[in-house]
Structure formats: C-alpha cells, structure tokens
Design a protein that fits this description.
Rossmann fold; cell membrane; transmembrane; three-stranded parallel sheet; 4 domains; 44% helix; eight-stranded mixed sheet; alpha/beta; membrane; glycoprotein
C-alpha cells in the first residue's frame, strides 16, 4: 500500500498535483474486527458512530480489502448500501460476484469458481481418477467442494471420500478423518479448508507419519507461513497448490530492501519488524530501558540501524514472489486511474446526467464507483488490468509445488499456470520436469481405485462401487479389447486373429504341409528314397527273373506289386504342398486305387499259392479250379470296382480345397474337403474289405508246404497293413491342420514299407546273400524232405 501510494504521488502522468494518502486497519482475519475497522474509517472516530461522518474532510475515497471472504462479505453488504467502492485483493468467494447483493464490491483477484475448475483440470491432467476431499464446515468450502466434485466427475474422475472438518475442529473429528485417509486407496487428497481448522489436522497427520499422500491445497492458505514446523513441512513435501498469479512490481524489491525505521518513524510496525528480523532490541524500547546489559547475553543485541535487509533469508523476507501483494498494488492503481479519469472529465461529455462530471476533490462515492467499474489500464509491469461485469479481475492462476531439500532449505516452485482466456483444452500449462514428488523427481503418483487392466483384459464393474472400481477379466479367445469401450471385447472376423496383446485383429497365418518346412521335406525325402529302394528291388527281380525264387508264386504279380508300391511311395508327394482343386481330387483317388491294386495283387498271389497246392494234391476239392486262371481276373476286377467307386465319387461330390478356420487357433488351414463323406467312406470301406479278405485267405493258407508258399509273408504284410490303418484312425481324428496330412502320409509310407519288407526282403536276402538257396533242386529237396517228415 505504501509503495503504491508513493509511486502514484511521484508520477507526473497519473493524478498530477494531487497527493494521495491512506489509513490502515488490521482486521486480524476476523469479520467482527473488519466491521469495526470499516466503522472507524467511515465515521472518522476510533469508536465508530454508525451513519455519521465526523471527519468529512479526511474521508477515504475507497476501501481496499479485506483479505478473507468471510470478512469482506459483511463489509460489502454495508458499503453496498451507499455504493461505497470496495476493492478486495484476495477474497474469492463466488457469491461476491452477485452485484444485486454486493453492488459496490470489486476485486483484483478471480472468482474461486475458476480455482475449482483449475484444480479439476489439474486432476485430469495427471490422470487422477480417484481422489479424496476434505473441506471445512462453512459455506465457501462446502459449495466449492460440490462444484469441484461435479467438474471432476464430468472429466471422468470420482471422489473416493469427502470429509467435513468442523470449525473449530475436534480431536474426535480429526482422528475419524485420519482413519478414512489411511484406509482409502486414494493417493491424492484435495484440501478445501480454512487454515484455522486445517492446522490441527495436518499436525496429527505429521505425527502419524503419513507421507504417502499428495496434498492439493487452495489459495486460502500457504505452507510457508501457516506451517512453520519442520516435521509438518516434511509431511507436506511435494504438495501442489493453487495461488493467484505471481505478478511483477518493478522497483518493489529495491523498496523493500531500502525501508528503515528512520524513513518511516511513525510506522508502528517498523521497529517491531526490525527487532524480529535481526533478533535485536532498539535502545528506545521501554521493555528494556531499565534492564541491565546482562539481560541481553542470551544472544539478543542492541539494534544499530546498520543492519542490512538483503542479508535476511528470502524465505523469511520474500522480495521475489508477489501474489496478494501484486493484487493489492493493482487495486490501489485502479482507484488512482479512476480518479485520474474523473479529473480529466470534460463537462458536457461526462458519464452522468446531462453529460455532467464529478469533481475529483468533492464527489459522491457512487460516482467514483462508476469510474472504477469502467477502468482499463496497463499496470507498471505492462499487464492489462480491468474489471468484468461482475467486478472480478483477470483470471490468472499459478500452480505451485512445495519442495523441501535435504539441506533444510525449502521453497515454492512455479510448475504451471491456468489461463481461463486460453482456447478450450489449453487453459492448463504444466512443466513436469520442475515437479518433485515427495522430494524425488520420480514418476507422477498414481491415484486410481483400480489399476488399469493389462492388455487383452476388459473391465468388469464391481456391484455397488463407482465405475472406476473394477475387476479385470481376460477377453475370450478370438476377441480383442474394444478400443472405444474398455468394458467389452470384440470378436475378430473369421479370417483374423488377435495379436499377442489382443489390441488388434491380424490376418490369420495360412498353414499347410509344404516342402519348405522340415516335416514336409522329410516326408518327401523318405517317400522318394523308398520309391528308389522299391525300384532297386524291381530291377533285381528283372535281372533274376529266371531264378526259382522270382518265378515262384507268379512273378508277373510280383512285378505288378512292385510297380504299385513304387507309385504308392510316390503318392504322398501329392499330399504335400498347397492344396488346390486338382490335388484334392486326385490324391485320395490315387491312394485308394494304388492300394486296391496292391491288396488285389496280394490276394491274387495268395489264391495262386492255394491253387498251386491244390494242383499237387489229388485230394483237394479246388483242383478243378486251377484251369480257370482265377488270379488273372482278380486284380483287374477288384481294381476296376474301386475305380468305378472313385469315378462315382468324383462325379457326384468331388473333393475340393477349403479354408478351414476352426482347425487351429489363430491359423487358416488349407485342406481338402472330401466332398461326400458317404462315398469317401465307401471307397475306404471297399479297400478295407479287400484287405480283410486277403488277410483271411493268407491266414488260412499259412500252413501250406513251403514250396512256392508266400502266404506267411503275405499274412505278416497284411497284419502290418491292418495295424497301421487301425491305429491311423484315432491318430487321424486327434490331430489338426497339417499334422492330419502328415499322419496320413506316415500311414501310407508305413503300410507300403510293410508290404515291401515282409514280402520282398526275404527273397532279396536269398538272392543277394544266399544264392545257393535260389535253386530248384534245393527248394524241391527241402520240400520233399518236409513232406517225408
């Protein structure tokens, strides 16, 4: 106030030739004393007289103050009766914007509704969706808490708890609130409390060492001045605060460092301030005049007046951060600019009746109020100052972070600002790198009811709880989390499958048994090697075709069987590779026809053995069938029946390639649909019938004399064939995708190898290793010996 008046009086541009003065009254943060001070100022008497002006020549033009809203409000009701200008520099109660109730009240600070909005934006910025709230039991705190609650919930957050702190607070209520704080999962707690009710609560919180919370305070209290104890400062370390914008007052720092009791000899506070600042006593202090110097030996010294104010710690004597000081400076200058405009009014162009003007040295209070409401000016820092239609000043809010350092130093750090005039969504500006959370520059604290669900999990609401409290349930197979609604999962299209995090649907992997993979190439190699081995046996039989072991039991059927086995070993090559219409149509047909030919040849060889034995046995009833050459017809007839069945199958419901989406999870298996399952079963059933007949006939003929007898080997081969295909059925049904094809290929190779090994390897063994046994005499002799036995 003093600095502002001195600046105005020293200005040649603002109110030249007019000197301003001021009166000051300390309301002691009390509405009753505030009213007493107003009565004193308005009546001109220390003991105020209502409705009387006892000193009209020294009446103040306007009242600047008070600081707390609870003191400004009754004062504004009285001053409003006579439209007496009142400009507060700190009262933010939203109700004071009501110009019907408070017509002459203005303020250079903002309406606290904007502060609630700033806190809500702050909570949203840090993604705090679950916060606690403590408010004082008064109108301002309760109404502010209600507004903030609505704003937080609009932004998607929720209030974990809201506790009311009585005024004055009781230990019972304090312990009850602390118990709620300790049990709550909310990390962030917003304090809507007046300082007198908050101090005992914070003291108990500090005593119980509750340091895992982040406190967010409003502008009605300041940590540095209201909580001087180190343990409390430690508890509040990392807290965030809302405060009016810290403005610049050019020259004020130098002014504060230049003040001295000699410059302001009549200032009742100056010497007291000096004594407290430098821990000294003025010689003229009555309390020490009659004491001996010994009383000062406790460290207190006499003040010399040479002490330097710039040696005081800025934390104690802050000359850098001006908040309410800045608003008070603007309030004084607003009155001065209004008076200046009144002084420069041109008669006939004035704002009052018939264009009249008011006299600056003799005007009515309502006339000055008119000019103050309309005033617009740039202050000494160059910032634009004005009052809106509700008498509120520009909205400028600082976001502060309270930081306490290991060396004992502490400070408020400006970490952001809120500008209501900025475009929507850009009002809040935060510098994260400046924030220290609980003394550490760590990640932003999390304050949620339930931790976010992992990828691929959806939210499941808990009955009776807020929507931000939930369980996490995994999305089912084939589903991804809905990007627009985290509480539900979406099923992927049939040809797609979720990625590992279940965030998006990716095209399914196309799978088939290919030559490029190890399994396909291994089966193809085995198939070719067995085919070459069979071809080698065939060549050996051609070379040794005139030997008894080859001529025995119809060598033509042996050649046919070897040729069939060669094709049988090559048959799996049609099963490997990407299925298409042609390969699907021919692979099962080839397999069925080739194996029907093999089994028919074995049946013919078995019947040949039986007929040969019948021809040499005079008592045999089958002797008369020898001349009919039945084995010659068995192979073509049995094979032709299978070919006819295959033709019917291909013409009626031929196999085709299809994309099997359900065979394997996350994969599209390209396989062959067999078309008509009935006709396919008929083809396989016929082949099984041939195998059963051949096995039965060979089994019955297994005890015939060894000469020209292969039935034992045919029996073994048919047992191998039957065993392979009987075990093939459960293996085929229990596999999926390309493994199913691999199982069928393995069955084809195994059964073909069984024929080759059981029937031809014994003969190859005699031909290659024991040629002496490959003679008609030896075979005949051996036969004769056995018959003699």
């Amino acid at each position: 106030m003093a600095f502002s008046i001195l600046e105005i009086n020293a200005s040649n541009e603002l109110l030249p030739n007019i000197t301003l003065g001021f009166k000051m009254f300390d309301s002691c943060y009390n509405e009753v004393r505030s009213l007493m001070g107003a009565t004193w100022i308005l009546s001109g008497k220390k003991k105020g007289v209502s409705n009387f002006k006892c000193d009209k020549d020294h009446m103040p033009l306007a009242i600047v103050g008070d600081m707390p809203s609870k003191a400004s409000m009754p004062l504004a009701r009285i001053l409003g009766l006579t439209r007496y200008p009142q400009i507060s520099y700190a009262s933010g109660l939203p109700l004071l914007s009501d110009k019907i109730q408070f017509p002459s009240f203005l303020r250079t600070t903002y309406n606290l509704d904007n502060e609630w909005f700033a806190i809500a934006q702050l909570v949203k910025y840090f993604n705090w969706t679950w916060v606690g709230m403590i408010c004082s039991d008064n109108e301002l705190s309760i109404s502010g808490a209600q507004l903030l609650t609505r704003q937080i919930e609009t932004n998607g957050g929720y209030i974990a708890f809201q506790e009311t702190l009585p005024i004055p607070s009781t230990m019972e209520s304090i312990y009850s609130i602390i118990d709620v704080i300790k049990k709550s999962s909310a990390t962030v707690i917003i304090l809507f409390c007046t300082i007198e009710s908050l101090v005992p609560l914070v003291e108990q919180i500090s005593f119980l060492n509750i340091t895992d919370k982040v406190w967010v305070g409003i502008s009605s209290w300041s940590i540095t001045s209201d909580f001087p104890r180190v343990d409390i400062l430690t508890t509040l370390n990392g807290s965030l605060g809302i405060a009016p914008k810290s403005g610049k007052i050019p020259g004020f720092k130098e002014f504060l460092y230049s003040i001295h009791p000699s410059i302001f000899p009549n200032d009742p506070y100056m010497k007291t301030f000096w004594e407290n600042a430098f821990h000294c006593v003025w010689p003229g202090n009555d309390a020490y005049n009659n004491t001996s110097p010994a009383l000062l030996k406790n460290g207190t010294v006499w003040c010399t007046g040479k002490e330097r104010l710039d040696s005081i710690d800025p934390i104690i004597y802050d000359v850098y951060n001006f908040k309410y000081t800045y608003n008070l400076h603007n309030a004084v200058f607003a009155v001065a600019h209004a008076l200046h405009q009144m002084k420069n009014c041109v008669p006939g162009k004035g704002p009052f009746k018939n264009g009249s003007c008011a006299e600056v040295l003799n005007h009515q209070s309502w006339q000055l109020l008119h000019y103050i409401k309309k005033v617009v000016f740039n202050n000494t820092a160059g910032e634009r100052i004005y009052f809106d239609e509700n008498g509120d000043g520009p909205i400028a809010i600082d976001i502060l972070n309270w930081q306490l350092f290991p060396n004992g130093s502490n400070r408020y750090v400006h970490i952001g600002s809120f500008d209501a005039s900025a475009p929507k969504g850009q009002e809040l500006n935060i510098w994260l790198n400046r924030i220290l959370w609980n003394g550490q520059n760590t990640h932003v604290p999390v304050s949620v009811c339930s931790d976010p669900c992992p990828k691929g999990y959806r939210r499941a609401a808990l009955q009776g709880q807020k929507i931000c409290c939930f369980d996490c349930l995994p999305c089912s197979e084939g589903e991804i989390l809905n990007p627009n609604d985290v509480s539900e999962c979406l099923k992927c299209p049939e040809d797609k499958w979720p990625d590992s995090r279940k965030e998006k649907c990716l095209p399914k992997i196309i799978q088939f048994l290919s030559y490029e993979e190890a399994l396909g190439s291994a089966l193809a190699t085995i198939s070719v090697l067995f085919c070459l081995l069979t071809f080698s046996v065939f060549c050996l039989f051609i070379v040794k075709q005139e030997t008894p072991i080859v001529k025995a039991n119809n060598r033509e059927l042996s050649y046919l069987l070897l040729i069939s086995l060669m094709f049988g070993f090559l048959c799996p090559l049609v099963f490997i590779g990407r299925p298409n219409l042609i390969t699907c149509m021919i692979r099962q047909v080839l397999f069925a026809v080739i194996f029907s030919l093999c089994v028919s040849a074995l049946l013919a060889k078995t019947i040949t053995v039986i007929l040969i034995f019948s021809a040499t046995n005079p008592d045999s009833k089958l002797k008369k069938l020898v001349g009919l050459k039945i084995p010659v017809y068995i192979v073509p007839v049995c094979t032709m029946i299978q070919i006819i069945l295959c033709i019917i199958w291909l013409t009626q419901a031929a196999p085709f390639a299809e994309f099997n989406m359900a065979a394997e999870k996350g994969k599209i298996v390209i396989d062959c649909n067999e078309g008509s399952r009935v006709l396919f079963a008929c083809v396989l059933g016929y082949m099984g019938l041939l195998a059963t007949i051949s096995l039965s006939v060979a089994f019955l003929a297994r005890k015939l004399p060894d000469t020209f007898n292969e039935t034992k080997f045919i029996t073994f081969s048919m047992l191998v064939f039957a065993s392979v295909w009987v075990t093939f059925i459960p293996a085929y049904l229990s596999t999926k995708g390309k493994e199913t094809v691999a199982v069928e290929i393995f069955a084809i190779l195994s059964s073909s190898a069984g024929f080759l090994v059981c029937i031809f390897f014994p003969k190859c063994y005699i031909i290659l290793l024991h040629p002496e046994l490959n003679s008609k005499q030896y075979i005949t002799g051996r036969s004769a010996r056995k018959q003699g036995i």
